[in-house]
Amino acid sequence: MLAAIVLAAGQGSRFGSQKLLAPIRTKPLVRVTVENVLTAAVDDVVVVVGRDADGVQAALVGLQVRFAENRNYANGMSTSVMAGIEALLPGTDLALIALGDQPGITPNIIRRLIEAQRVSRKPIVVPMYAGQRGNPVLFRSDFFPELATIHGDHGARDLILSDPERVEFVEFPFPPPADIDTRQDYDAMLQLVDGAIKRK
Question: How would CATH label the architecture of 2-199?
Fold first, then answer.
């Protein structure tokens, strides 16, 4: 079984309000992200919520997802990773860990990561955007126990860097899709969206 864990519990303090609920055209940002994950044909999606949990869940009404609450979200991203891992169903072989504030992660990116794991059989698959390591990251189930032990706000970065031989890197010829941390990030993303629509 292939699962996805979408991290949507953070404080978003640099944005000034709940960035996950900021609109992209007619949809909340987090809904765009989760719909992209669902379109990639994963079997199970766990959305980890924390701050403004009710609002985030309301933004995802009607989507085939499950929710895991992280009451310790103020202690860093690692606590959300742990909450997501603990919520996975028995028989989960692979888990994609995605950021809820990265609506630019397309289904095609996710599909390429999945295919790379099937070919390489490596336990960790990481995208490289124009040579820069990014998200989402795919983990095989034998690494779930290690993911549950990480600390702080680094996510799984230290785990990835500790042994590059066990990592399959997948190259993409474009810059990393932005994660929306500030109002400037958000405004820049809206300009890209509007430009793409006008070019259609």
Answer: Alpha-Beta Complex (3.90)
